[in-house]
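User: Here's a structure from my thesis project, written as structure tokens. My advisor, Dr. K., wants to see whether a designed sequence matches the one we expressed. Can you design one independently, without my sequence as a hint?
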């Protein structure tokens, strides 16, 4: 309903506000129940939860909820004064544990919960609907009857999505926490709404040249400080910012502007809030009963039981819902490592080995493979991306070769090594050359995405700019160098909001980014650099066409540790699509630096992170650089170039 405010309750049911008695009715066929029990129902959202419809000439709402260990389930809300005796649902005869029924008179906007009377100890719970399309604005915790009606305008994007979303395309991601990207400080520090972000955020991402945006989990979560990673409403975008339709409009607007949208998705754990999934019917329904498998000590949360078929149907349906009903271009799957290992973050005796006595979670592995097979079968031009921090083999390899089937994997090792290297005084970098080159030893074992994510600017780590050594000029030069290294290194890219202009304070979820810093030339220059890197990354096929294969990269020299210089070639599919990347990781300019080149042609400098427009010193190679018949680096010809301080330059042969 356009214009509905997310901070108000939605009371739009029938004119007299009265609900009729529960009527026997079902959307679920015997085949649905069979698929549900087998863990193969991928579209449960079409049958479970609350659905607006007409039955025997009466408008109302159908409800269906899974609670096999309940002896009674009622729908409660304002419409019946939260009285569990008024609207009891009917349990199905087929032992599925599903309770259902149709209540005439309940319309869109009805606030409701399920009152569940457990067979275990006579406990009574009021639970939100696991399939609710909308929830009340936290801290309120009820579900809201809603629909999926929306007229998409992104047909051109969806028809051509493979041209934007393929593994051989530029993939530069702007990671965003919707609640803190920009806030209205003068209006009680309110976050922007979905509608406001459709204007401001879309325009900004487009101006900066990012190809994709990734949202930290937008699914409804009770605790704002969890950043969305403690989900209670798996099928509902957070009502903090508006309605599901307004969130669709935000995605639609991104697509109409040529920008893809990735959603952060959390199938690894869920919180213990009483209105959520935990002990849903008085038993460990969605989670494991044994805390050694069902409780996550790091996050004080509960782990899904991937071996229970009904839970698999729930999670697989949820993934398909966001990909299909919200046109998401990808899912970034959170905390995959915690799913793969039974002993993840656990001491001896705190975990249960698998049937072979090992630490692999066989049920989770099976689930992840099925997730990816399903996602790519239904949406072959979408992507799934794993946040996986270990050396697990084949995360982004097809399942038919034994892999997990993800499209990409975060390169956590690159992130750690790069930030560790750049934190060192440039003088000492000569002793740590292996840290900055080590990633190339394994860069093509997976389809890697290079992340500088939100995790690197929280929990006392400080802002990235504050981790750079030296005076102000050197700190910003190091940042420019690090970003240029990131964009010329094999792999796709991800940058957390604020890092693109040099946010100076650690990220806080409850306030706006430091946009005021853009009044200073230093921060303007860094922002201009990111914009130019995105342009370069899009324009040069050599920088994106072969991001995941060895034949797209070639070292010229990685052994000049004394000067802390790196030289390498990036290659596209066509022979002519090549660029040379030269990095000087010290503040010492180097004149007449000789490198071997791949052909006897003149070279021109097409990018320089030390340019004055980026607040650099402006040292550059102005004229075309002539090739000399002097052998170097195992090649018969070479060139001499000027390497600016703390910089990367990119050279290309003239046609």
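Assistant: Designed independently from the structure alone:
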């Amino acid at each position: 309903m356009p214009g509905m405010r997310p901070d108000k309750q939605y009371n739009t049911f029938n004119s007299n506000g009265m609900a009729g008695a529960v009527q026997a009715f079902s959307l679920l066929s015997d085949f649905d129940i069979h698929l549900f029990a087998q863990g193969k129902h991928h579209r449960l959202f079409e049958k479970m939860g609350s659905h607006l419809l007409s039955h025997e000439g009466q408008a109302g709402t159908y409800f269906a909820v899974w609670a096999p260990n309940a002896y009674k389930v009622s729908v409660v809300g304002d419409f019946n004064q939260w009285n569990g005796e008024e609207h009891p649902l009917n349990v199905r005869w087929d032992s599925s544990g599903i309770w259902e029924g149709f209540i005439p008179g309940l319309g869109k906007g009805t606030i409701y919960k399920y009152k569940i009377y457990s067979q275990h100890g006579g406990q009574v719970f009021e639970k939100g609907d696991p399939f609710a399309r909308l929830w009340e604005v936290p801290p309120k915790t009820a579900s809201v009857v809603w629909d999926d009606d929306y007229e998409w305008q992104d047909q051109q994007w969806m028809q051509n999505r493979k041209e934007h979303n393929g593994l051989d395309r530029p993939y530069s991601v702007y990671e965003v926490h919707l609640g803190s990207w920009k806030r209205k400080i003068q209006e009680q520090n309110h976050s922007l709404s979905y509608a406001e972000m459709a204007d401001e955020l879309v325009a900004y991402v487009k101006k900066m040249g990012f190809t994709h945006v990734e949202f930290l989990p937008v699914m409804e979560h009770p605790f704002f400080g969890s950043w969305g990673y403690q989900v209670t409403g798996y099928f509902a975008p957070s009502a903090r910012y508006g309605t599901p339709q307004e969130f669709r409009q935000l995605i639609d607007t991104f697509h109409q502007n040529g920008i893809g949208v990735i959603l952060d998705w959390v199938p690894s754990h869920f919180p213990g809030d009483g209105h959520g999934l935990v002990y849903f019917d008085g038993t460990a329904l969605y989670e494991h009963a044994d805390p050694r498998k069902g409780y996550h000590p790091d996050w004080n949360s509960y782990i899904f039981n991937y071996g229970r078929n009904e839970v698999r149907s729930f999670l697989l349906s949820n993934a398909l819902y966001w990909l299909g009903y919200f046109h998401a271009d990808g899912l970034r799957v959170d905390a995959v490592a915690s799913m793969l290992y039974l002993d993840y973050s656990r001491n001896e005796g705190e975990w249960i080995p698998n049937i072979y006595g090992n630490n692999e979670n066989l049920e989770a592995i099976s689930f992840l493979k099925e997730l990816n097979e399903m996602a790519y079968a239904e949406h072959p031009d979408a992507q799934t991306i794993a946040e996986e921090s270990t050396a697990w083999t084949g995360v982004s390899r097809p399942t038919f070769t034994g892999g997990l089937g993800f499209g990409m994997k975060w390169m956590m090792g690159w992130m750690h090594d790069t930030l560790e290297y750049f934190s060192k005084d440039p003088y000492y970098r000569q002793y740590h050359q292996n840290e900055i080159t080590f990633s190339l030893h394994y860069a093509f074992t997976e389809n890697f995405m290079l992340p500088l994510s939100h995790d690197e600017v929280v929990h006392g780590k400080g802002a990235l700019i504050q981790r750079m050594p030296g005076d102000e000029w050197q700190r910003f030069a190091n940042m420019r160098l690090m970003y240029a290294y990131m964009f010329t290194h094999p792999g796709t890219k991800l940058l957390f909001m604020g890092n693109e202009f040099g946010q100076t304070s650690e990220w806080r979820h409850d306030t706006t980014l430091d946009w005021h810093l853009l009044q200073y030339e230093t921060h303007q220059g860094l922002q201009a650099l990111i914009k130019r890197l995105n342009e370069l990354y899009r324009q040069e096929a050599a920088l994106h066409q072969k991001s995941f294969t060895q034949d797209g990269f070639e070292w010229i020299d990685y052994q000049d540790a004394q000067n802390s210089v790196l030289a390498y070639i990036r290659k596209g599919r066509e022979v002519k699509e090549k660029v040379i990347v030269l990095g000087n990781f010290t503040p010492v300019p180097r004149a007449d630096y000789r490198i071997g080149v791949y052909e006897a042609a003149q070279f021109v400098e097409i990018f320089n992170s030390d340019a004055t427009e980026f607040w650099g010193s402006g040292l550059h190679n102005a004229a075309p650089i002539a090739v000399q018949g002097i052998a170097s680096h195992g090649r018969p010809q070479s060139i001499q170039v000027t390497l600016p301080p703390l910089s990367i330059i990119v050279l290309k042969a003239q046609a």
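When you compare it with your expressed construct, this may help: Residues 33 and 419 are 51 Å apart (CA to CA).
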